[in-house]
Every structure is written in C-alpha cells, then in structure tokens.
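New here. Invent one.

***
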Amino acid sequence: MVRKILVVDDAKFMRIRCARILNEQGFVVIEAANGREAVEKYRTERPDAVLLDISMPEMDGLNALRAIRELDPSARVAMLTAMGQQNIVIEAIKSGAKDFIVKPFEPERVLKSVHKLLM
C-alpha cells in the first residue's frame, strides 16, 4: 500500500529535501507552502501523515495543526521546528502533534518520524 505524506513548509528547498527523502522510500508526497494550504490539502487528499513546519506565513503550524485535528482527530502530525522553539513544541504536542523534527535534520530522522507516525 502506498502511503501519502503531506509536507508543509514555506521554504521550497525544505519541501524538496523532505520530498526527495520520502520519495526514495516509496512514499507519495503532497506539498503545501503554508498552513492554510495544508488544511485544504489535508481535506482533499487525506494523507496518512503530515510533516508540518511551525513558522509560516498566512497560517502558522500550530493553527494548521489545530485545524487539521478538527477535520480529523486521528490525524498523524509531526512538527518541523527550528532550534529554540521548545515552548512551541510543547504547545504543539498538547494540541495533538505526535513527534517533532529539529531543523536542520538528517534523512534518517525524517524517516524515523514518519515510521513512528504510521505505526
């Protein structure tokens, strides 16, 4: 069974990097550039897991996480975070995030998180 992963980051190079890592492992990747787009793509695509950046324009990752969890309380989401955002990570976990990945990340860390989400 092919698994769909929604990768959300306002930095195109981060989306490309995540997509390459996931595509090489056989995942189908859907991309979104901000939180509002992420919620819409989640609604239409129903991905198996989401990698969601915290700091983005239009709608940040925390608000997108809450909106996605409203659409689907069982949504599997990991947050992508820069160093120094620990307080936001705690808030994200309280809001339903299952994991977080600190940027810059190694490919193995992304795969470990996705496998954790899909278990």
